[in-house]
Task: structure prediction
Amino acid sequence: MWIYPDLIAHRGGGTLAPENTLAALRCAVAHGFRAVEFDVMGVAGGELVLMHDTELGRTVPGSGPVARLTAAELAAMDAGSWLGEHWRGEPVPGFGQAAAFCVAHGLLMNAEIKPAPGLEADTGHRIAQACQALPAGSVLLSSFSVEALQAARAAAPDVPRALLVGAVPDDWRAQLDALAAVALHARESGLGAAQVAAVKAAGFGLMAYTVNDPARARELFASGVDAVCTDRLDLIADRLPNA
Ligand code: G3P
Ligand code: MG
Result:
């Protein structure tokens, strides 16, 4: 069962603000969203930050693995100017900072565990542990990494989990059962009505990503999808109910 909002802002603010920053979370609030997705990575020193890429260079300057830096080093870097001068100096936030913001603003967190290679179990464990300190129902974990989700389950079985997939695999039901997951998060392209019906009939939540066309969002909702994750907060928030 899906107990979360039906619209989720991808990477915080979608394309409207630098991804995985506090500015992005503020953007979600400004557009009336009640749920955000962001990516969480474990870095040097065992801390957790909001970050999508495993390598520096796209959203923060430099080269080499993000996970070699500490959260303090990343917090001093510019994660905003890649999108525009207006955002220069926007830092890489820690997971704790982001979570505090979301709790204070009533934003449901879909925290995607985005582990650096080799740190799947460690990152899943750390994030789940950190989530135990958050209010019940304030976070839904997800990951493409089964290993990370298994570790999260072991560390904090009561923090809900969703399995992230591209195309829906044939054994989706077995995978969800093995993780005691509450939901499947599936790529929207190719997600058909029969798959949606099967997942819903089995009693799982179903979120589709990344949906930037309001017509496609309506089609997915009509087929039974519970929620969509979007980059276009500006298009979708105004055009669909329950934003
Ligand atoms: O959770 C949906 C989406 O965030 C998964 O893909 O690469 O944007 O993290 P990605
Ligand atoms: Mg993500």
Summary: Strands lie at 7-9, 35-42, 48-50, 108-113, 139-143, 161-165, 183-187, 205-209, 227-230. The pocket of magnesium ion (ligand 2) is lined by residues 37, 39, 112 (CB under 6 Å).
